[in-house]
Amino acid sequence: MLAVEGLEAGYGTTQVLFGLSLAVGEGELVTLMGRNGMGKTTSVRAILGLTPPRRGRVRLDGRDLTGQPPHRIARAGLGLVPEGRQIFRTLSVAENLRATARPGPWTFARVLALFPRLAERLGNMGHQLSGGEQQMLAVGRALMTNPRLLILDEATEGLAPLVRAEIWDCLAALRREGLAILLIDKNLERLLALADRHVLIEKGRDVWHGTSAELRARPELVERHLGV
Prior knowledge:
By secondary structure, the chain is α/β, with parallel strands linked by helices.
Protein backbone atom coordinates (compact mmCIF):
# COMPACT_ATOMS: atom_id res chain seq x y z
CA MET A 1 0.00 0.00 0.00
CA LEU A 2 2.64 2.53 1.10
CA ALA A 3 5.98 2.45 -0.70
CA VAL A 4 8.79 4.81 0.31
CA GLU A 5 11.81 4.60 -1.98
CA GLY A 6 15.17 6.33 -1.61
CA LEU A 7 13.83 9.19 0.51
CA GLU A 8 16.19 12.08 1.20
CA ALA A 9 15.18 15.07 3.31
CA GLY A 10 16.53 17.59 5.79
CA TYR A 11 16.35 21.09 7.16
CA GLY A 12 18.26 23.92 5.53
CA THR A 13 21.78 22.73 4.83
CA THR A 14 21.45 19.76 7.20
CA GLN A 15 20.53 16.47 5.56
CA VAL A 16 18.77 13.97 7.83
CA LEU A 17 17.53 11.18 5.54
CA PHE A 18 19.88 9.42 3.15
CA GLY A 19 17.88 7.13 0.88
CA LEU A 20 15.33 5.70 3.33
CA SER A 21 13.11 2.95 1.96
CA LEU A 22 10.22 1.12 3.61
CA ALA A 23 6.86 -0.40 2.76
CA VAL A 24 3.56 -1.05 4.53
CA GLY A 25 1.17 -3.57 3.03
CA GLU A 26 -2.62 -3.68 3.25
CA GLY A 27 -3.60 -4.41 6.85
CA GLU A 28 0.01 -4.54 8.08
CA LEU A 29 1.45 -2.96 11.20
CA VAL A 30 5.05 -1.94 10.53
CA THR A 31 7.35 -0.18 13.00
CA LEU A 32 10.12 2.32 12.36
CA MET A 33 12.67 1.93 15.15
CA GLY A 34 15.93 3.63 16.03
CA ARG A 35 17.62 5.67 18.72
CA ASN A 36 16.76 9.34 19.22
CA GLY A 37 18.08 11.61 16.49
CA MET A 38 18.27 8.91 13.82
CA GLY A 39 15.57 10.45 11.60
CA LYS A 40 12.30 8.77 12.58
CA THR A 41 10.24 11.96 12.91
CA THR A 42 11.83 13.44 9.80
CA SER A 43 10.80 10.27 7.96
CA VAL A 44 7.20 10.79 9.02
CA ARG A 45 7.32 14.48 8.08
CA ALA A 46 8.77 13.68 4.66
CA ILE A 47 6.14 11.00 3.97
CA LEU A 48 3.38 13.47 4.89
CA GLY A 49 4.93 16.33 2.92
CA LEU A 50 5.50 18.45 6.02
CA THR A 51 9.23 18.39 5.23
CA PRO A 52 9.38 18.19 1.42
CA PRO A 53 11.63 15.34 0.20
CA ARG A 54 14.73 16.36 -1.75
CA ARG A 55 14.89 13.04 -3.54
CA GLY A 56 13.04 9.74 -3.62
CA ARG A 57 9.42 8.70 -3.96
CA VAL A 58 6.37 8.25 -1.72
CA ARG A 59 3.57 6.17 -3.25
CA LEU A 60 0.21 5.12 -1.88
CA ASP A 61 -1.56 2.37 -3.82
CA GLY A 62 0.75 3.17 -6.71
CA ARG A 63 -0.15 6.86 -6.72
CA ASP A 64 2.89 9.13 -6.51
CA LEU A 65 2.43 11.58 -3.64
CA THR A 66 5.96 12.98 -3.72
CA GLY A 67 5.96 16.77 -3.55
CA GLN A 68 2.22 17.04 -2.91
CA PRO A 69 1.13 19.48 -0.17
CA PRO A 70 0.26 17.87 3.17
CA HIS A 71 -3.50 18.39 2.85
CA ARG A 72 -3.57 16.49 -0.44
CA ILE A 73 -1.50 13.66 1.02
CA ALA A 74 -3.90 13.48 3.96
CA ARG A 75 -6.88 13.35 1.58
CA ALA A 76 -5.20 10.50 -0.29
CA GLY A 77 -5.58 8.40 2.85
CA LEU A 78 -2.72 9.05 5.29
CA GLY A 79 -3.68 9.92 8.87
CA LEU A 80 -1.15 11.25 11.40
CA VAL A 81 -0.94 11.12 15.18
CA PRO A 82 2.03 13.48 15.59
CA GLU A 83 4.68 13.52 18.26
CA GLY A 84 3.51 15.91 20.98
CA ARG A 85 -0.19 15.31 20.04
CA GLN A 86 -0.73 18.86 18.68
CA ILE A 87 -4.44 18.91 19.36
CA PHE A 88 -6.35 22.18 19.07
CA ARG A 89 -6.05 23.49 22.61
CA THR A 90 -8.79 26.14 22.30
CA LEU A 91 -11.36 23.75 20.78
CA SER A 92 -13.48 21.31 22.75
CA VAL A 93 -13.06 17.56 22.46
CA ALA A 94 -16.14 17.39 20.23
CA GLU A 95 -14.86 20.24 18.04
CA ASN A 96 -11.42 18.63 17.72
CA LEU A 97 -13.02 15.44 16.45
CA ARG A 98 -15.52 17.05 14.10
CA ALA A 99 -12.93 19.45 12.64
CA THR A 100 -11.20 16.61 10.76
CA ALA A 101 -14.21 14.39 9.98
CA ARG A 102 -14.49 12.81 6.55
CA PRO A 103 -17.09 10.25 5.44
CA GLY A 104 -16.25 6.65 6.21
CA PRO A 105 -16.53 3.89 8.80
CA TRP A 106 -14.95 5.94 11.59
CA THR A 107 -17.74 8.13 12.91
CA PHE A 108 -18.02 10.40 15.93
CA ALA A 109 -19.94 7.73 17.85
CA ARG A 110 -17.47 5.00 16.94
CA VAL A 111 -14.46 7.01 18.13
CA LEU A 112 -16.22 7.68 21.44
CA ALA A 113 -16.93 3.95 21.77
CA LEU A 114 -13.21 3.29 21.29
CA PHE A 115 -12.29 5.95 23.86
CA PRO A 116 -15.13 6.20 26.42
CA ARG A 117 -13.12 8.70 28.44
CA LEU A 118 -13.46 11.22 25.62
CA ALA A 119 -17.24 10.84 25.76
CA GLU A 120 -17.05 12.11 29.36
CA ARG A 121 -14.99 15.14 28.26
CA LEU A 122 -16.83 16.30 25.14
CA GLY A 123 -17.24 19.87 26.41
CA ASN A 124 -13.72 20.18 27.79
CA MET A 125 -11.22 22.29 25.89
CA GLY A 126 -8.07 20.67 24.59
CA HIS A 127 -5.86 22.36 27.19
CA GLN A 128 -8.06 21.00 30.00
CA LEU A 129 -7.24 17.36 29.19
CA SER A 130 -4.57 15.20 30.75
CA GLY A 131 -1.69 14.01 28.58
CA GLY A 132 -3.32 10.62 28.17
CA GLU A 133 -6.65 12.14 27.19
CA GLN A 134 -4.90 14.38 24.69
CA GLN A 135 -3.26 11.34 23.12
CA MET A 136 -6.60 9.56 22.89
CA LEU A 137 -8.02 12.67 21.25
CA ALA A 138 -5.09 12.81 18.80
CA VAL A 139 -5.72 9.20 17.80
CA GLY A 140 -9.47 9.80 17.54
CA ARG A 141 -8.95 12.93 15.46
CA ALA A 142 -6.74 10.99 13.02
CA LEU A 143 -9.32 8.20 12.78
CA MET A 144 -12.02 10.75 11.99
CA THR A 145 -10.18 11.46 8.72
CA ASN A 146 -10.93 7.80 7.85
CA PRO A 147 -7.37 7.04 6.71
CA ARG A 148 -6.19 4.08 4.68
CA LEU A 149 -2.95 4.17 6.68
CA LEU A 150 -2.48 5.52 10.21
CA ILE A 151 0.95 6.87 11.19
CA LEU A 152 1.75 7.30 14.89
CA ASP A 153 4.91 9.11 15.98
CA GLU A 154 5.86 8.21 19.59
CA ALA A 155 2.49 6.64 20.31
CA THR A 156 2.87 6.30 24.10
CA GLU A 157 5.68 8.72 25.00
CA GLY A 158 5.24 10.45 28.35
CA LEU A 159 2.02 8.64 29.30
CA ALA A 160 1.16 7.00 32.61
CA PRO A 161 1.34 3.17 32.60
CA LEU A 162 -2.43 2.66 32.67
CA VAL A 163 -2.96 5.07 29.79
CA ARG A 164 -0.14 3.47 27.81
CA ALA A 165 -1.92 0.13 28.23
CA GLU A 166 -5.14 1.67 26.85
CA ILE A 167 -3.31 3.01 23.80
CA TRP A 168 -1.69 -0.39 23.15
CA ASP A 169 -5.11 -2.05 23.45
CA CYS A 170 -6.47 0.50 20.96
CA LEU A 171 -3.65 -0.24 18.49
CA ALA A 172 -4.26 -3.97 18.81
CA ALA A 173 -7.96 -3.42 18.07
CA LEU A 174 -7.17 -1.29 15.02
CA ARG A 175 -4.77 -3.95 13.76
CA ARG A 176 -7.44 -6.65 14.15
CA GLU A 177 -9.78 -4.51 12.06
CA GLY A 178 -7.24 -4.47 9.26
CA LEU A 179 -6.16 -0.83 9.38
CA ALA A 180 -2.63 -0.41 8.03
CA ILE A 181 -0.36 1.25 10.60
CA LEU A 182 3.16 2.70 10.60
CA LEU A 183 4.21 2.99 14.24
CA ILE A 184 7.06 4.68 16.11
CA ASP A 185 7.50 3.91 19.80
CA LYS A 186 10.23 2.91 22.25
CA ASN A 187 8.52 -0.07 23.92
CA LEU A 188 10.39 -2.86 22.16
CA GLU A 189 8.50 -5.77 23.72
CA ARG A 190 5.12 -4.28 22.83
CA LEU A 191 6.29 -3.59 19.29
CA LEU A 192 7.63 -7.12 18.87
CA ALA A 193 4.34 -8.57 20.11
CA LEU A 194 2.13 -6.41 17.92
CA ALA A 195 3.87 -5.71 14.62
CA ASP A 196 4.16 -7.73 11.42
CA ARG A 197 7.48 -6.24 10.40
CA HIS A 198 10.12 -3.79 11.58
CA VAL A 199 12.45 -1.28 9.94
CA LEU A 200 15.57 -0.18 11.81
CA ILE A 201 16.92 3.27 10.99
CA GLU A 202 20.44 4.52 11.68
CA LYS A 203 21.58 8.03 10.79
CA GLY A 204 18.82 8.48 8.23
CA ARG A 205 19.28 5.13 6.50
CA ASP A 206 17.23 1.95 6.76
CA VAL A 207 19.73 -0.67 7.94
CA TRP A 208 17.52 -3.71 8.56
CA HIS A 209 14.04 -5.01 7.68
CA GLY A 210 12.43 -8.11 9.18
CA THR A 211 9.78 -9.79 11.28
CA SER A 212 9.50 -9.91 15.07
CA ALA A 213 10.80 -13.48 15.12
CA GLU A 214 13.81 -12.47 13.04
CA LEU A 215 14.57 -9.49 15.27
CA ARG A 216 14.26 -11.58 18.45
CA ALA A 217 16.83 -13.94 16.96
CA ARG A 218 19.27 -11.07 16.40
CA PRO A 219 19.90 -9.49 19.83
CA GLU A 220 23.06 -7.89 18.47
CA LEU A 221 20.89 -5.75 16.16
CA VAL A 222 18.84 -4.53 19.11
CA GLU A 223 22.01 -3.66 21.02
CA ARG A 224 23.63 -1.93 18.04
CA HIS A 225 20.71 0.11 16.80
CA LEU A 226 18.38 0.49 19.79
CA GLY A 227 20.63 0.25 22.85
CA VAL A 228 21.41 3.37 24.85
